[in-house]
Amino acid sequence: MTMLVSNVARTAKRETARTLSALPRRLSSTTAPVVSADASAKLARDGFVAVGKVLSDDEVQRARGRFEDLFKGNFDTGIYPDEWHWREGISKPDAFREIVNGWKADSQIAGVVRSPTLGKLATELMGWPHGARLAQDDVLWKPPLAGGVAFHQDSAYISAQFKPYENNSVTIWIALDDADQDTGVVEYCVGSHLWPNNKAKETTASGSAFHGQAHHLGPLAQAARSAGVSDADIEIQRITVRTGEAIVHHQDVWHGSAASVSSTRHRRALGVHLVRSDVTWRDTRRPDYIYGRYYLPQEASPRDEFFPQTYTP
Ligand SMILES: O=C(O)CCC(=O)C(=O)O
């Protein structure tokens, strides 16, 4: 009986891996941004850089059109995402909504986040020698008057799972609606990725804040104190990001977003978190949270089915 159950589980896992491998990788080549030396330098200096339009209007519409269904649990691949925050009829209508690894559940989202164009963008900005793979995605929906996202570093969730740690990941944050001060655009603490004592290597993913902080800047104040940075040296920037445009940010930069003050406008976005494709699993302790689910002790590298390589130079 036990053997039968484990054979069935193995077959189901193989089937999931096959379905995920067959999902689309598509993005119109007309929207590929050009990476200049200035853009790489700005990312290295400030921890973020606006890169202009990455999705055509048609691609935006198709991705945005999947949000309602996704948050209702209608998954066209038949596979559940790795995290699903917000349920219709149960959650507060104005709560911030997030799905992690929506690409596994939805082929439209897969087509965007598995795109070679985005992989190339990250690879060129960071100078990664072997290209990029998808670490995870974030389907982000801030409805009118919804709360914000607490300041955090993406490295706590992503970079810290792998080695080498330094400069191994970036996020491409893509606006699917115009995002500005009113709707709580993503905001950055300039240069905070370079603060001393600021590495998320030893943080656990579950110990890092994202949802549910009363004040979204709270964790930033704490981080600044431990880095010895005075209030006068904290600079926060909020850049308006138009529909289809993106900002790329560094793994260690402190960022978050304020509550929406608009009573009418939605702020939908996609976070595409890419990691250099030649990372291996950390060997200090088992990868945690989402990553731990896909970790196989006998394999040093993350599996392509679950962390697809999206661009090889
Ligand atoms: O969309 C937001 O408000 C925050 C997104 C974020 O933290 C991220 O994409 O890393």
Automatic annotation (TrEMBL):
Its cofactor is Fe cation. It comes from the Eukaryota. SUPFAM superfamilies: Clavaminate synthase-like. InterPro entries: Phytyl_CoA_dOase-like. Keywords: Dioxygenase, Oxidoreductase. One of its GO terms (molecular function) is metal ion binding. It holds the Pfam family PhyH. The keyword Oxidoreductase applies. This is Phytanoyl-CoA dioxygenase domain-containing protein 1-like. It comes from Hondaea fermentalgiana.
